[in-house]
Amino acid sequence: MSATDASSHSTVAPSRFGWGHVARRAEAVVLPLGALLVGFGVFAVFLLLQGKSPADFFALVYRGAFGSAFSWQNTLSRAAPLLLAALCVALPARLGLVVIGGEGAIVLGGVGAGAIGVLLSGVPPALALPVMASVAMGIGALWIGAVGALRHVRGVNETIASLLMAYIAIALMNHLVEGPLRDPASLNKPSTAPLEDALRVGNIPGWDVHWGLGFGVLCCVLAWVLIDKTTWGFAARIAGGNMRAAQVQGLPVGWLIIGFTALGGAVAGLAGFFEVTAVHGSANASLAGGYGFTGILIAFLARHNPLAIIPVALLLAGFEASSGLVQRRMDLPDATVLVLQGFVFMAILISDTLFGRFKIFAPERWRTG
Amino acid sequence: MDTDLGYWIIPLAILGGAIRVSTPFLFVSLGEALTERSGRINLGLEGTLVFGAMSGYGLAYLTGSPWLGVAAAACCGAMFGLLHGIICSLPKVNDIAVGIAMMILGMGLAFYFGKPFVQPVAPDLPAISFGWWSDVPQIKAALEVNVLFLLGAGLAVALWWMFRATKIGLIIRVVGDSTDAARAMGLRPVLIRSCATAVGGAFAGVGGAYLSLYYPGSWNEGISSGQGLMAVALVIFARWNPLACFGAALLFGGAGALGPTLQSVGITQGYYLFFAAPYVLTLGVLIATSSPTRAMTGAPGELSITK
After folding, report:
1. How far, in Å, CA of A196 to CA of A194, rounded?
2. % of residues, chain B, pLDDT over 90
3. A242 at the B interface (CB within 8 A)?
């Protein structure tokens, strides 16, 4: 992606402003948006084939996700973990790595935060909460950083390794929550002991949405600064474009890989921290709610741009928030959202082939017949 | 009877479990080996497996014939494979990412259409008993071998022979090793890869039908727990050799049978950790067989994970 920006052509002087610049930038917005609409279109046809009305579906989604203050609140609190989970995919992706095991870091980060939180009862929240968050982030960083390290040191395929690690993490969580860390009082749903009220993360004042959203947006902005404005981000983008060239240039490719995967894992671990402290109040199987997997789709839709993750995560959170209403009203199975996500994901990947095909996005080709 | 055998029951149950659990691994890994030999990687076989399980179960329930179910699963798998193959033929499309999307789409469609089949009971696939010589029920149970397992073993040998000694096998290997060489020979790499992916998808669909029609033998949303994905790693471990895939599938099946076996003899301590055994084994095998220089013996030259 960044490589095409750099190759300025002689016919048009590269300017930061003006139509040429707008056109170049527009490609990365228009094509994914078009793919999103095509994905929705295919899904609409799918619904029509079942004899269901797509218009009703999208109207209900709008009502369930963005129609009222309550639905906005529901959407926004689901967006919080999705923002962080998507970053766990997008950060390594800038190095050309496809890491899809963010779910593992979320789950273990949550268990870590829950377990430490129980030990820290009585400690002032101003001290205990940062410790819990650091533990969650540390565990996440180790978990996904290990995937990066394996990739660099042993050449292990990071996609397969990270997903296997996610399965291992879920098994580990089940073991801990049903065994050593189980609160004997939790009968139906094995959980760690509930956190005391002082250690629960509250809402952003005046918003009715927990602080996870604020931190999620903050992390997206910080990740954008890291990638777009710092030398580390620049080095990572070079390595992502051509690993061999980066090595020849003397860039510390190994540390970049481990650093970016660990950072992604830390952010996903933070999502687990907020799920436990703000939503569930203890660590249990609800942590493996699939946020990590929806995050993959969000990152790809946002073309791994941290700022673009914010609106995309909001949209996908809206679909998840409205799924209950849609299922009840239209008598659709709960996998409907998964089908929609599948169609959109396919469309967005197919749209990759269209990049560079349209003259309108390439100012240097405007004048040639 | 348990007391007579004592803890001997554990290796016996693991052997029986290996034969039972390994069949889906075997079919998916053979399909993936075929696909990867042609130079593509299809991570979407997990979704194909789940959709195969649903469609196989659904059709077996509606028609009363488990074999029609298997055929339906194979057809659906081939369609998924073909879709993957065609999409990956477009320039600049990443086959690993398309696999992830196919995984989500396959599972989504399977859960969507599979909802009505969660309750009903479909007929099972037949099994052949090789334990007639023994009176011990555990041995009899362990040697109850499903027809699909034997079919899969035969398929492994057939594929091995195909790659080794036939023209089709040679064509697939050439396409997988070098697109340029294949073009120079007048072959059509895109077409051949798409066909190989489609056939590989059909195998994975059959593996899914085994899950829902024999072991565990019912359809629900948790039917596959990453077998489709583990099989992809298994192919690397087996060095793209169909015969080695057979051995690796048995090994992974044994690891998968560890948790349920220990639970059946009353060892429930750390049940969930034993449940993770196949994943840990897969990861360990992946670490051991990968190489820092990314050069793997026997790897198809055009494969994106080794390039």
Report:
1. 6
2. 57
3. no
